[in-house]
Amino acid sequence: MTLVAERPRTAHDLIAEGGPIRKKATFTSFEESTVEDWAAIEKYGAHEPSRVLELCLEHLDMLRAPDHVYPVDRYEHSLQTASRAWRDGHDDDDEMIAAALLHDIGDFFARENHGEFCAAILKPYVRPEVYWIVKYHEMFQGYHFFHHLGGNRNARESLRGHPHFEACRKFCDDYDQAAFDPNYDTMPLEAFMPALNRVFEKPLRQVNDRVQDD
Ligand SMILES: [Fe+2]
Ligand SMILES: [Fe+2]
Fold first, then answer.
1. How many angstroms does the Cα of residue 182 sit away from the middle of ligand 1?
2. What does the pLDDT look like over 4-27, one tens digit per residue?
3. pLDDT tens digits, one per residue of 83-94
C-alpha cells in the first residue's frame, strides 16, 4: 500500500467547498493568520478592479513636457516608439505594444533605472521576453549615445548571448532610439487602447512564480 501525504487544505479549497466564509480576516499578524482568514481575503478582497492601467496612463501623461529639450517630448516619444513597433509587424502583439508605449513611465521615480521600474509593473502581464526588453532597454539604448556622455556605448555586450538579447537590440535600435522625429506620423493613444486593455485585463502569472526572467 502506498501512503500519499495529505495536502493541507488551502483558502481556495474552502472557497470551492462553498461554505460560509466570514467577510473579514481577524489576525493581527500574518504569523497568526489562518486558512479561514485567507479565504475571506481571497473571496472578498482579491477581486477589486485593478487600477494598474489607469495609473500607467496617468504616468504616461506626466511625460508631456511643453518645455522639453528633446526634439519631441517623452509622451510623443512613447507614442512614436509604439507606432514604430506597430508598423514593423507588432500590430497583433499586444504585449510588445504595451511595452513600447509604457517603457519610459518610471522616469519620475527612477530616472537611472526606469527600465526596471516599468518592467516590474509589466511583469505579471507580459511574457518574459517583453519583461526583459523593458528592463534592459536603457543599457541597449545607450549604444546610440553613451559615448557622447563619456560612457561605454558597448555596455550591452555584457549581455550578449542571452536568449532575449536580439529582441531587445531590435526594440531599441529600430523603435526606441529612432522615436524622436518631430515629422514622423505618430499614431494617437486611442489606436493602442484596445491592446492595452487586453494586456491589463488579467495577469498572466503571479509574481512569485519562479520564471527565468533575468
Ligand atoms: Fe527609457
Ligand atoms: Fe524611450
1. 18
2. 668 888 998 998 999 889 989 999
3. 999 999 999 999
Instruction: Return the C-alpha torsion angle 185, 186, 187, 189, nearest 10.
Output: -160
- Residue 37, H or E segment: helix 35-44
Assess if CATH 1.20.272.10 describes domain 52-200.
no
Domain ranges of the chain: 11-44, 52-200
Q: What spatial distance separates the first Cα and last Cα of the chain, rounded to whole Å?
A: 44
45: CA distance to ligand 2 center in Å?
Answer: 36
- For the chain, the average pLDDT equals 91
**Distance (Å, rounded) from C-alpha 191 to C-alpha 59?**
18
Q: Report yes or no: 192 and 82 within 8 Å, Cβ to Cβ.
A: yes
Which-ligand-closest: CA of 100?
2
Residue-wise pLDDT tens digits, 19-74: 889 989 999 999 999 999 999 998 887 666 678 999 999 999 999 988 889 999 99
**Closest ligand to residue 175's CA:** 2
pLDDT over threshold 60, residue 210: no
Pull the grid cell for residue 125. Answer: 502581464
pTM (predicted TM-score): 0.85
